Amino acid sequence: MTAPLHEPGATETALADIAADLPAKAIEGRSPGRIAWLRLRRDKVALAGGTVVVLLILVAVFAPQIVGLLGHPPDQLHEDQIDPNLGTPIHAFGGISRHFLFGVEPVNGRDLFSRVVYGARVSLLVAFLAAVVAVLLGTLFGIVAGYFGGWVDALVSRVMDLLLAFPQLLFIIALVSVVPDSLWGFTGSGVRMAVLIVVIGFFGWPYVGRIVRGQTLALREREYVEAARSLGAGRGYILFRELLPNLIAPITVYTTLMIPTNILTEAALSFLGAGVKPPTPSWGQMLSAAVTVFQADPMFMIIPGLAIFVTVLAFNLFGDGVRDALDPKGSR
Amino acid sequence: MTDESEVFLSVRDLKVHFPTDDGLVKAVDGLSFELARGRTLGIVGESGSGKSVTSLAVMGLHGVGQYGRGRARISGEIHLDGQELTGADPDSVRRLRGREMAMIFQDPLSSLHPYYTVGTQISEAYRVHHPVTKAAARTRAVELLGRVGIPQPDRRFDDYPHQFSGGMRQRVMIAMALVNNPDLLIADEPTTALDVTVQAQILDLIRDLQQEFGSAVIVITHDLGVVAELADDILVMYAGRCVERGPAERVFYTPQHPYTWGLLGSMPRFDRERSERLTPVRGAPPSLINVPSGCAFHPRCPHADLTGGASRSTVPELREVAERHFAACHLPVADRNRIWEASR
User: Fold this and answer.
1) C-alpha–C-alpha distance, residues A306 and B312, integer Å
2) A17 → chain B, closest CA residue
3) Residue B65: its chain A contacts at CB < 8 A?
4) Chains A, B: CB contacts under 8 A, how many?
5) Which residue of A has its CA nearest to B203?
6) What region does A166 belong to: left with phi over 0, alpha with psi -120 to 50, or beta?
7) Tens digit of each residue's pLDDT, chain B (344 residues)
8) How far is residue B209's CA from residue B144's CA, in Å, rounded to a whole number?
9) Among A112, A133, B106, B293, which one has the highest count of C-beta atoms within 10 angstroms of its own C-beta?
10) pLDDT bucket at A247, cuts 50 / 70 / 90
């Protein structure tokens, strides 16, 4: 290939011939996303977790249709299902029957199936949106702190330390009690959900921020970042086109593992009465109500407890699978 | 080194210092050189002699972590096509990067972004400086890939860096650096990470493209063989300073500095007997925090005694020994010629 470039030498032509003879498959390019998908597809446990996650999302999205088919409206009372003397369901196992798949609530006889289905809406919506808030804030501040360093980094890092040391549960409980009934154009349960999303997301971003900052510190010294700078790339390009693609793997992994944590936080807050307001069903709130009748009707506690357990487990298994799939060094 | 009128890049008394916890690292300490369009300058020296720091300073790339404490202190003047760079606004220097000056890095794998296809990377480099459509940028990128000798450039455009061999990746890097027709190309150890057989191809390619594009080239290397192949002029660096510079033939055939002798003596050559041992330069490169007094090379110099203590006490100045040939050494010129002739 020492011949002048404008007239291809013999070597070059020969190389081109060889390349042309190769079957196209041999040089097929796989994008990093495709490689991760192929790895994920081989991981049975993660696939099972992922399937449950997808089902739960479908359940939450199509809650009215599912309840219309298999249950009763969540706020409809069914006093005929309740033993008037004891206040417990008349059928065994919390009133489970052909018409009431998960049984009924003690005392007022509301359909537990439809309340669990609608509860999934609250849990997943709060958990997802809070994770989105946390990831957006964490990525932005983390990448800026890591890339610019110096006092920018010091400032962001101290704010993150401060937030991580903050007693967030107590803060949320205190905050919820002073939030007005209508805020930012939301009313009723909408206000509580918006507040939960903002607050859980706001206290969650430092976890993402720390990971992103650490990765950025390592990545900004990479030669390809320097090469991009040597070609005249600006700050925005470096941050979002050069650095961000390398951060997507850790961010994705952390997001899938943060969602179950958020579900638990939401359930805990609802349990403590700081979650969504009563007519709107939520799993934590049901658990809280079940505490008083636990001995008479244990199923009332087991059903929402199982819902939380299955959801969190599915997200965690799926998250672990995603992490393994995105880690090129993993060998499982 | 050339007439003032042709000078394209001029570096005057460049100093790059890094404040660290252990003290001030003087990575480059008073370096001057000039370069004309169409000429090639080879900068040679051991690891840590300040070669790469010099090139990054010219490119204005010492800015990552701009607000950090470890920030480089750069002084002196760098004129590129008449424009002063050291004191210039970082954003205007950024606009020059890629269009006026570009750089090829040592390791072609780590210099290409693993997430994007090579074609995307080349066309993005073009689109930073030219407001053209994606299709037009693609045409330009394919054209460049072909120019640097990648077979089937239209098909390889959509391949990822890991699908290329080391030599092919370096060709891609060269295509990326040349996509905007820069007037100055800095190649920082362009062949160090490559196989010997591929090295010659890449050097030929750089030379051919230089003739075609007429750009000024700086080749940074520790390998005298590389500059022998490419450079018109050679600058030998030691401990952040220039110890010798001049036309390549003169530096190779009548070197004036004991350090240059050491470099030439430690280079394997085919015209020598196999039984002759290579003569390495004694000792290790000096710390850039506590640079030895006087001539920085004196602790390692086998001829320091001949200067009557001057090399220990005073920093030698660069003096012109022949036309355009400078050396910074206290040894009398007669002694230098005698020692060099005797060692051949």
Assistant:
1) 82
2) B151
3) 147-150, 220
4) 122
5) A2
6) beta
7) 444 457 889 999 998 888 888 888 888 888 999 998 889 999 998 888 888 888 888 888 876 544 444 578 888 889 988 888 887 888 888 888 888 899 888 888 788 888 888 999 999 889 888 889 999 999 999 998 988 888 888 989 988 888 888 888 888 988 898 888 888 999 988 888 778 888 888 888 888 888 888 889 999 988 888 888 789 999 999 988 999 999 998 888 888 888 988 888 877 766 666 666 677 778 888 888 888 888 888 888 888 888 777 888 888 888 888 888 999 988 888 888 888 888 76
8) 11
9) A112
10) confident
Identify which of B61, B115, B204 has the shortest CB distance to residue A229: B61
Question: B175 in contact with A at a CB cutoff of 8 Å?
Answer: no
CATH second-level architecture of A41-326? Orthogonal Bundle (1.10)
Whole-angstrom distance, CA of residue B139 vs CA of residue B142 = 5
pLDDT of residue A222: 82
- DSSP letter for B305, please: G
Subunit contact A227:B209, Cβ cutoff 8 A: no
Look at phi and psi of residue B28 and say left if phi exceeds 0, alpha if psi is from -120 to 50, else beta: beta
What's the full length of chain A, in residues? 332
In Å, how far is A240's CA from the nearest CA of chain B?
13
Residue with tokens 């007669």: B334
B112 vs chain A: nearest CA distance in angstroms? 5
Beta strand B40-44 pairing with B233-238: parallel
Q: Distance between the two ends of chain A, CA-based, in angstroms?
A: 43
Contact list in B for residue A149 (CB cut-off 8 A) is 64-68
Q: Give the pair of three-digit tokens for residue B264.
A: 């030439």
Alpha helix (H) residue ranges in chain B:
51-59, 90-96, 118-129, 134-147, 153-156, 166-178, 196-213, 224-230, 248-253, 258-265, 310-313, 333-343
| Distance from C-alpha of A305 to C-alpha of A136, rounded to nearest angstrom | 31
3-state secondary structure at position B187: strand
Task: Say if residues B182 and B7 touch (Cβ distance below 8 Å).
Answer: no
Rounded-to-integer distance, Cα A265 and Cα A283, Å: 11
> Which of A5, A152, A222 lies nearest to residue B67, judging by beta carbons?
A152
Could you tell me the pTM of the whole model? 0.75
In this structure, the dihedral spanned by the alpha carbons of residues B200, B201, B204 and B208, taken in order and rounded to 10 degrees, is -170
Q: Which two tokens stand for residue B109?
A: 């794998």
H-run or E-run covering B43:
strand B40-44
Q: Which residue, B109, B87, B78, B102, is CA-closest to B10?
A: B78
